[in-house]
Design a protein that fits this description.
Layout (H helix, E strand, L loop, with lengths): L1 H15 L1 H5 L9 H30 L10 H32 L8 H8 L1 H21 L4 H17 L7 H28 L1 H4 L4 H17 L1
Subcellular location: Membrane
GO molecular function, one term: cupric reductase (NADH) activity
Keywords: Membrane, Transmembrane, Transmembrane helix
């Protein structure tokens, strides 16, 4: 009798809460929007770079640069996606603060779209960090390309033919070193933001420590 009552009660609970029971079976429900936004951003910057740097020069001057599709063009698109994703992380907080000031209270619920955006800031930040890390790996692979070796050989041959022994560009050297240094610093700060956003690390920090790391890293990252 008790087993039949339990089965009846269990069937009633299952019948009235199907959504709650299927929630653990969903695959990354909070990552779908950020993944779609990141993919669309990458697709936009990739298509823009393809039209501007490859297709238009080919149609106008006949220059064939389609070998850049596999490595160079994704490397140019990834940092743009990382920057926009980082902006999308901090923009909803500013919108929420402005909305609270405009309403004059913080006890009123946000709109549904803004609430969902606020809840997915961590996913956007981690995807932005992934794009920045991929950009660093792609940049390290650029000197290994066959096109780079041919370009170096052609440059060396042109220098020998012109009789130039040591072409030294002081401003170019400084500009390159500063560019690489700022990139490494930005990637390090973004790594710190990503690590402190993880629950296993964030739970160890106090609220003051977490706020200090996030605020100062955010300001440094923005200026870098």
């Amino acid at each position: 009798m008790l087993s039949m009552l339990y089965m009846r009660l269990h069937h009633t609970v299952l019948h009235h809460c199907p959504i709650r029971l299927t929630m653990p079976l969903r695959l990354f429900p909070s990552w779908r929007g950020p993944l779609l936004a990141t993919f669309l951003l990458f697709l936009f910057f990739y298509a823009y770079g393809f039209l501007r740097d490859l297709l238009l020069p080919y149609l106008a001057h006949g220059r064939d640069g389609f070998h850049r599709l596999a490595l160079a063009l994704p490397n140019e698109s990834l940092p743009n996606v990382a920057l926009v994703a980082l902006a999308l992380v901090y923009l909803p907080g500013l919108l929420a603060a402005w909305l609270q000031l405009w309403r004059g209270t913080k006890y009123q619920r946000f709109p549904r779209w803004l609430d969902g955006w606020l809840l997915r800031r961590k996913q956007l930040g981690l995807l932005g960090f992934l794009c920045a890390a991929l950009h660093a790996v792609y940049s390290l692979c650029l000197p290994l390309r066959t096109a780079t070796r041919h370009r170096l050989i052609n440059a060396a041959y042109s220098q020998v033919k012109a009789g130039v022994e040591e072409p030294w560009d002081e401003s170019g050297v400084w500009r390159s070193d500063l560019y690489l240094s700022c990139g490494v610093l930005a990637l390090g700060i973004l790594s710190l933001l990503a690590i402190t956003s993880l629950p296993t690390v964030g739970n160890v920090l106090t609220w003051r420590e977490f706020t200090f790391v996030q605020a100062n890293s955010r300001n440094t990252q923005t200026h870098t």
